[in-house]
Design brief:
alpha/beta; Rossmann fold; six-stranded parallel sheet; three-stranded mixed sheet; 10 helices; 13 strands; globular; binds NADP nicotinamide-adenine-dinucleotide phosphate
């Protein structure tokens, strides 16, 4: 898509500007909130979904007129693992489209100066060359189990690019790899692979189980980024990056699922056997993002995987009685 120039100037955001973090109670949003607060932002705005349902277009426009945010990070979305995505595809398509169209349209009406839209690495073709470069978007077929969610996110990227082209506003998009950390969804139905492993191995450790069996061979490789690194990357991009193409956010390194399971088992103190049911499917052999755009803009992650998993396990244990389901 052709791009026009925007009015972006690299540099610190105004710490007193009204800054709306949509989805501020979620995994990403709560980390963004903590990070922005620690970076001195004094005028953060957040609403829970029961206070403001972002599917309600009139309410979203009214909220933007009342609060007049100057910066928006869109971290509100209907998010889930493979089971939820493949069982409820129309919910993932429709709710995400509604949320993003409402928020981005309302932000446009207010001419919000800086918007960051968050998508996901599942927007890329199933058989994209690894590591996955940003320009592989729309070059092949999607993974069918989450294509509805991915199409909604691709529409969001296009909306950001279209606003840039039509109005010259410096809005941007970021596509994180698999995230994990405090505040994650650990529910059996809704969770992603890492929180699911933490829950499974913690329960096995508590029960003194002799073995835990995981699906597949354990050989697929996956990349994981701690959510606090994600939050710092978001602020970094808002302050240093401008461009129409979505930016990959990850570590640039991957591990096998077997390695991840072993790190999780160590972190929870599980001493039984780790077994693999090789009759079950493995999924894509590798999913690693090319993060050279982000690295080239001067950002790098700081949380190591072992440390990140250890502190996430601590958080899980402290919160196990009141986790979201
Ligand atoms: N988790 C990952 O591994 C991962 C990986 C790549 C990309 N991402 C992206 O990061 C973004 C945030 O994901 P997350 O993992 O932080 O998800 P999450 O923990 O499920 O949080 C999503 C938040 O969105 C809010 N929300 C959902 N529907 C809403 C509605 N109708 N109105 C208002 N708020 C609504 C929820 O608010 P309430 O709590 O108030 O209900 C929730 O706090 C998403 O765009 C996702 O695609 C996540």
């Amino acid at each position: 898509m052709t791009d026009t120039s925007t009015d972006f100037t690299a540099g610190p955001l105004d710490r007193d500007a009204p800054t709306y973090i949509a989805g501020h109670r979620g995994l990403v949003g709560s980390s963004l909130w903590r990070h922005f607060e620690s970076e001195g932002f004094s005028n953060l705005i957040g609403r829970t979904s029961s206070e403001l349902d972002l599917k309600n277009r009139d309410a979203v426009f009214e909220f933007f007129r009342d609060t007049e945010p100057q910066v928006v990070v869109l971290a509100a979305a209907k998010v889930g693992g493979i089971l939820a995505n493949s069982t409820y595809p129309v919910d993932f398509l429709s709710e995400n489209l509604q949320i993003q169209v409402n928020v981005l349209d309302a932000a446009l009406e207010q001419r919000v100066s800086r918007v960051l839209f968050l998508g996901s690495s599942c927007i890329y073709p199933k058989y994209a060359e690894q590591p996955i470069r940003e320009d592989s978007l729309l070059t092949g077929l999607l993974e069918p189990t989450n294509d509805a969610y991915a199409i909604a996110k691709i529409a969001g990227i296009l909306q950001i690019q279209s606003v840039r082209r039509q109005y010259g506003l410096p809005w941007i998009s970021a596509m994180p790899t698999n995230l994990y950390g405090p505040g994650d969804n650990f529910s059996p139905e809704g969770s992603h692979v890492l929180p699911a492993l933490i829950r499974r191995y913690d329960e096995a450790a508590t029960a003194g189980a002799e073995s835990v069996t995981n699906w597949g061979t354990g050989s697929p490789r996956r990349e994981f980024l701690h959510v606090d690194d994600m939050a710092s990357a978001c602020l970094h991009l808002l302050e240093h990056f401008d461009g129409p193409q979505q930016v990959n956010v990850g570590t640039g390194e991957d591990q096998t699922i077997e390695e991840i399971a072993t790190i999780v088992a160590d972190a929870v103190g599980y001493e039984g056997r780790i077994e693999w049911d090789t009759t079950k499917p493995d999924g894509t052999p590798r999913k690693l993002l090319d993060v050279s755009t982000l690295r080239g803009s001067g950002w790098e992650p700081t949380v190591g995987l072992r440390d990140g998993i250890r502190t996430t396990v601590q958080w899980y244990r402290q919160n196990v009685g009141h986790l979201r389901e």
